[in-house]
């Protein structure tokens, strides 16, 4: 980089002495840290389709097996917000390698677990390890690439972040159908070992980052124990409430009600505590910066869209159309391919076009794609489902890349670890909100539509009588007796009604997500222009 370019980058809060690449190509850092990223985001989605097999293998009910997911989400939610502080205290590279090693080691325990209780405990450890990966990686990228090049860097990194959850159901379904559920965890072990080897060789701990750590530890380590306790209880119970609420009938269940109250009280107490504490464990003052606050809100929406639809589109295909887990996952894979193809263009454009324009276009694409999904029907083909997902997937890179590139603009270099942690908190919370919202909507609206449709199934409805008569004649033609043919006709009609009610409930979920996107879109105009391709006017 030229002297003028370096000076401009430094004025914008970036300095080359914080680069994790050392004297090597910074793109090597992107490749190396993406290995662990892919392992973690893939594993976050891969277990969903294997719960029935896990439950049967370990002699547990399906509801008990869902703790395999819940335990990971809770521990992950607790560790992510404090990962920035841990990275500052332990050392970014050291903390990152500890996280990779813990994730890989606990994956081995998961794969070898002889009982559900041991599997759940291993998943808690896996969540702790996984929670430290993305914040450390994104902070490394922000420190390694100047603002003018971050768009392309985050585009390359974003491929695995977005494609991982999309490929997860497909790969998980294939492994479960053809091998064993144990392998959805065991495949992480060699990947984790490879990541540790490459990180140790090719990723540096910059002297500037080491000086920051020494400065922070000078005079002794100051731990915000109360802040940590408030985060752990607040976010842990919030994740528990969102994950278990629909299964346990929400606030009519005293456990869910108590969990929600405890979460709310802790989060409300956390805000003034962290804002007034001398050495807070998370830096909430970052939300006072307009760009960072707005990008976090958009990231929350991205989490809702990405994780929400990734969760219930395979569910729709399996429940309504009778697809296998593998085939349902393949419909999402088409979207993953579209994302991979578009992601480089998003990186290039983010370095040339105002982030607000890209975000606006991307949100319109998302809203339009969700509107298109409201016109799907129970007669749709695999092609219809794949194309609908591809339409949505085309817009995702233009959300993820500008957000992650512009969020760090104007922040002091030493704040990147904390900023990365908070960005990942909002994305994961968005995913939890999205999954919880859509599952609740689907369950409640399915009951509503089923009740409305069943009202029409009576002998006073001439359409009902003619349908039953025609269907019974068809069954009789294939050898059924008169009474049996009538029973089969009623059962077939009821099944069609159930499928139609399910389809209408999924359409309602698409419509609500579309409304959420439309409501968030105007917020992007509150952001300040990021002037891509130019160095910021000054530090902040």
Structure description:
The chain is mainly alpha-helical. It is built from 22 helices and no strands. Helix 9 packs across helix 19, helix 15 packs antiparallel against helix 22 and helix 17 packs antiparallel against helix 22. The longest helix is centred in the last third of the chain and has 39 residues.
List keywords for this structure.
540 residues, 76% helix, mainly alpha, 22 helices
Structural class determined from secondary elements: mainly alpha
Oligomer: single chain
Number of strand elements: 0
Q: Helices and strands, in N-to-C order?
A: HHHHHHHHHHHHHHHHHHHHHH
- Average residue pLDDT: 78
Distance from first to last alpha carbon: 23 Å
Query: Given the structure, what is the number of helices?
Result: 22
Beta-strand portion reads: under 5%
Poorly predicted runs: 1-12, 535-540
Radius of gyration: 25 Å
Q: Main sheet, how many strands, which sense, barrel? A: none
Shape: globular
- Helicity level: over 70%
Question: How is the secondary structure organized here?
Answer:
Layout lengths: L2 H9 L14 H21 L4 H7 L4 H4 L1 H24 L1 H21 L3 H16 L1 H12 L5 H29 L4 H4 L1 H15 L4 H11 L7 H20 L9 H23 L13 H30 L5 H26 L4 H19 L8 H14 L1 H10 L9 H39 L7 H16 L4 H39 L20
Give a short summary of the structure.
The chain is 76% helix and 0% strand.
